[in-house]
Specification:
The chain is an all-beta fold. The strands form 2 sheets. Strands 2, 4, 5, 6, 9, 10 and 11 form a 7-stranded mixed β-sheet that branches. The termini are far apart.
Length: 116
């Protein structure tokens, strides 16, 4: 059974930092392209950052220079280091694993709230 379990979310003040983790099980983690998505209330889900098994990372423009995506294949874990957080970063953050269109998996999501 495939599981992607996010952790590390919560409430943080503007300018603060959080580190999200996504622990994977049931998949050969190292061959998957992994990504973080987010969905704010009333908005569509959007890609935040993506890291392939090999190759370059991708970031949405709004988080460039503030967020860093990384992966530890030995631990089967994906990370998102979020610095200089802004209120507009408030959303539910989801972990996604993609190998093909037929092998795509999502985590349940975790809330990140940036507020004073």
């Amino acid at each position: 059974q495939v599981q992607l379990v996010e952790s590390g979310g919560g409430l943080v003040q503007p300018g603060g930092s959080l580190r999200l983790s996504c622990a994977a099980s049931g998949i050969l983690f190292s061959i998957y392209t992994m990504g973080w998505y987010r969905q704010a209330p009333g908005k569509e889900r959007e890609l935040v950052a993506q890291i392939p098994s090999r190759g370059n990372t991708v970031y949405v423009d709004s988080v460039k220079g503030r967020f860093t995506i990384s992966r530890d294949d030995a631990k089967k874990t994906l990370y998102l280091q979020m610095n200089s957080l802004k209120p507009e970063d408030t959303a539910v953050y989801y972990c996604k694993a993609v190998f093909s269109t037929a092998t795509t998996f999502w985590g349940r999501g975790i809330q990140v709230t940036v507020s004073s």
